[in-house]
Specification:
By secondary structure, the protein is an alpha+beta fold. The protein is about 35% helix and about 20% strand. The longest helix has 30 residues. It is globular and about 70 Å long. The N terminus and C terminus are likely disordered.
Length: about 450
């Protein structure tokens, strides 16, 4: 059903209630969590939510303290005071922002922020952010200047999956001046981030130097660019549908068949590879690396075992199959741990990480073939499995060497056993006996998430 794109005349609790009912069919029978920075935009959102005529099942707020500004602790205290005055529970999470070569501090902070917000969400809970029409304009222009594709030009969707819940942006139809008028009329206190005046940051430069001139010449720029973003989002949905159809024909369990990919035109190969990588929860590589996967990697000799790596991910071709895995540094599990996955869909190995079983209609794992009781343990040497249906049994040592998995990581990967039979190697390989096929009715995939060592005992 198409959603109305016409914003009501003025912002306020009733306006917001109408938007939430349009965006969330379950509203108000669901829990809402607000990403609350204490700035003008998120203050308007939280205050309007606190005054809704129909309150949601649960309303709470979450503030992320990045620790990057001298006054960040004062801002956290301000957020606590405002949330308390509005009668909304608030949690504060402190972030540690790592810096990677070539990555801006702004991008690193944003990645950490969304990771923490996602981790804090309860199943089915909706996270609301205060992004508005002017933010959408800035995002589209920045993506265009960075040479983004259709997905990037689609910018920020109103509703998107996030962790175990949803990410919702109910204010994307509103200009910031409408939020500011509502906040000032009610004399609501908010904080001003001094870093917003730093013109060396791309978004700030665009906002302070470029957009005033753009709006002077094209007053409706924000609305028209947002409309173009919606057109791009529609085009991306069509590309995803095509990719899903191509992926269904090329899938070989968790892998892709190189022969099926070579039968596609180059642009469809890139499209399905991008889709396949995103489906695994990994960040897509740059366009140049997608082209390398779709061309030279597929054209290489069958025994060459070429690969393309970026960030923490790698696509490897072995024979006529393409494998995708994350290059994570993990710790060695201390001992074997029993896992009854029917009652608990994840197993945590303290000091190592968590192996989770996720339902997925296109997943490579056949749940009906998976024994109810599993055993997780580290490598001991001599393990073998059959990763390709109908193929030979392979030594795990050889698979790890061929995939280029670092030695430290080889020693630490959790292995999944049923008795003495090896069924899976973290989220890298599955044995033929539990791989999904065309007749599989219940499918899933394994996800391995590493963590830093802790002194706690193993828990499943």
């Amino acid at each position: 059903m198409a959603r109305s794109r016409r914003a009501p005349a003025s912002f306020g609790p009733r306006w917001l209630q109408e938007r939430l009912a349009q965006l969330l069919p379950q509203f108000p029978h669901l829990s809402l969590c607000v990403a609350f920075s204490g700035g003008l935009d998120s203050t308007a959102l939280l205050a309007a939510l606190a005054r809704l005529p129909r309150r949601p099942r649960q309303l709470r707020a979450l503030h992320i303290d990045h620790g990057l500004q001298p006054r960040s602790r004062q801002w956290s205290a301000h957020c606590r005071r405002i949330a308390h005055a509005l009668g909304v529970p608030l949690a504060v999470r402190r972030a540690r922002v790592p810096r990677r070569r070539g990555e801006s501090l702004e991008a690193a902070a944003r990645a950490v922020r969304y990771r923490l917000l996602g981790e804090a969400l309860a199943p089915g809970e909706a996270l609301l952010t205060a992004h508005h029409l002017d933010d959408q304009l800035e995002t589209v222009l920045l993506q265009l200047l960075r040479g983004a594709g259709i997905a990037g030009l689609a910018a920020m969707p109103e509703v998107a999956p996030l962790a175990r819940g949803l990410l919702v942006r109910p204010l994307l139809l509103l200009a910031r001046r409408e939020l500011a008028a509502w906040v000032h009329a009610r004399r609501l206190a908010f904080v001003e981030d001094d870093s917003n005046a730093q013109r060396q940051l791309d978004r700030n430069y665009l906002r302070l130097e470029v957009l005033p001139q753009l709006r002077a010449r094209w007053p409706a720029a924000a609305a028209t660019v947002a409309r173009a973003a919606r057109h791009a989002a529609e085009a991306q949905r069509l590309l995803d549908a095509l990719a899903a159809a191509d992926l269904a024909r090329a899938s070989w369990g968790a892998m892709l068949a190189a022969r099926a990919l070579r039968a596609l035109p180059l642009e469809r190969r890139r499209n399905v590879l991008r889709f396949w990588i995103a489906q695994q929860g990994l960040q897509a590589p740059p366009a140049s690396l997608l082209t390398e996967m779709a061309g030279p990697l597929l054209a290489a000799r069958a025994d060459a075992q070429p690969f393309v790596a970026w960030g923490e991910a790698r696509v490897l071709r072995q024979g006529e199959l393409l494998y995708l895995h994350a290059q994570r540094e993990t710790q060695v599990p201390a001992a074997a741990v029993a896992w009854r996955w029917g009652g608990r869909r994840s197993c945590r190995l303290a000091g190592s990480g968590t192996l989770a079983l996720q339902h997925d209609a296109r997943g490579p794992l056949d749940l009906d073939a998976l024994p109810p009781r599993l055993l997780l343990r580290p490598r001991r040497g001599g393990e073998r499995l059959r990763p390709v249906r109908g193929g030979p049994r392979r030594a795990l040592k050889s698979l790890l060497q061929e995939a280029g998995v670092p030695p430290a990581q080889r020693r630490s990967l959790p292995l999944v056993f049923a008795g003495e039979q090896l069924l899976a190697v973290a989220d890298l390989w599955l044995d033929e006996s539990v791989q999904a096929g065309p007749a599989s009715r219940r499918r899933a995939r394994l996800r391995w998430t590493s963590e830093r060592p802790t002194p706690r005992r193993q828990m499943c």
